[in-house]
Amino acid sequence: MARAKRGKRYFGSVRELPSGRHQARYTGPDGVTYSARRPNGKALTFDTQGDADAWLALRHSEILLGAWLPPAEPKPEEATPITVREYCEAWLTDRDLEQTTIDHYRQILDDHIYPTFENVAVISVTPASVRQWFAQVARGDGKKVKDRPTARAHAYGLLRTIMNTAVADEVRDSNPCRVRGGGSAKRVKKIRPASLAELEAVVWAIPERYKLMVLLAAWCAMRFGELAELRRADVDTKRGVVHIRRGVTRTKGKRIVKDPKSDAGKREVNIPPHLIPMVKNHLRDHVAGSKVALLFPATSDNTRHMAPSSLYRVFYPAREKAGRDDLRFHDLRHTGAVLAAATGATLAELMARLGHSTPGAAMRYQHAAADRDKVIAQALSDLAGGTVTPIRPAVTSDEQEGDASAATA
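Given the sequence above, the corresponding structure tokens read:
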């Protein structure tokens, strides 16, 4: 039986969509054409044409009764607030950081920040919740953190930095990290640089191929990563200098050779003359002939970098024989800073020798040698008694030119 033809529509229109559903449209009293929509603004379609017709009839009735109002502008659906994890991951991705730094930050996030704030909306982090986290979670969630205040300070500092970015991005109005002194920590272990006698004892006790490594760490204030990447071409025995151009770091089991963190890290360090014979002997006895040969390679393969564990196997017994079980290899760099400072070197000269770009970084390596205060006191008495002549400050280049002019006048 043929379907009866519908009469001419007197209000609105209905269109069948490719999906088989039906769309209803009409022109309002304001002359604007409207499509059927849900209260949230999304399109409304109908299973059958009859349903669409019924919807149009309701709109037509509203118009006839004078009760029709133009549909309200749909309110945009509120976006789900971004969580701390989501924002932190985006923060890491957006920054040009060394891989070692990324790994360090990610460990801090995974160990100390995400356990508390992972699923919390960035906008919902409050100063009170940060204080509670700092006082109870970051300090008391395990011995690993409780015994290492520096790790807790690093965690707080990272969270504060990320929240500063959130403020700059207008994700939040203010930074909730307001714990006074939260980003700093008192050093738990007081560093005591090795004395010359202790340094000599370590050098005597350590195997021959490691002696120069210990001496350069102390007298030239070099880092382990700089020493491990040092090559034959980096040492100039004629001029008595070592060129520090690169360093090697380990991250996730991989060794990465890279430039120093700052331009100041690339430096030329003069080797104390009394070490030059040992440098020559080491180059002759323990280093391959190639210019790119490592000065301190792995024991099993002289083309591979030495691992810290390989050094510690011989360094720890040597420090015990020197009576310094507390001495870390990096503490020898502190020894180098003390020795350089004892010569009367200025802060700028120390910064250049240690490869620091800021005075604050260099100052962290300044220590008073155990017997220096007694020596200073004696020197002061000698000055008072007139038995010594006060040291003149270093003559500047301008003063030298002035003296030269006076001499020729």
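The first helix runs from residue 49 to 64. Try to locate this feature in the token string yourself.
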